[in-house]
Predict the structure.
Amino acid sequence: MGQSVGDYAAYRQRMLEEGLEYQDFVQDVLGRYFGLNFSTWSSQAYQQARGEGKAQIEIKYDRIFRSTSRFWVEVSEKPPKSVSYIASGINRPSMFYVMGDYKSIFLFPTRFLRRYRDAYLRQKKPFVENSTKTSQGFFLPMESAEKIAAALIIRVPDGWELNEKWQRHPGQLELLLQEV
């Protein structure tokens, strides 16, 4: 990696802040445009034990999925100097896993991503470790993401709306959110 401990700490703090800001953004969009209002736990202890919040919605900012045509799906994480990984991402308690950027928000039932994970493992593929060696996961190609997403919310000139594909199924988002 080649980063000093100080450089890594600054990088990690920057990434954490970006993720938290995106989480706030998604909560605002889902609340304002779709009537889904929820909050997330603030402490690491609650998040590890109970997931991100009572609504069991995990939110991840992926700023490069457009250029790579794939999402990073996390399954475990560890502090930089730790030797052990702990369950995270789709392996923590959550019903929905939300990924995207400031133009598109994908809502996935976590159980679908877990099935994808299980199929990945059946192929005897090892999980990928990220460049900072603090996270393990797998890549979800965009074509697969579009097939298994329960909803895709896109930015339009006057706000946000369900992508055309999901508009053909009126009430799908409402049914999905009733599970929360």
User: Anything to note?
Assistant: The two ends are 40 Å apart (CA to CA). The longest helix spans residues 5-34.
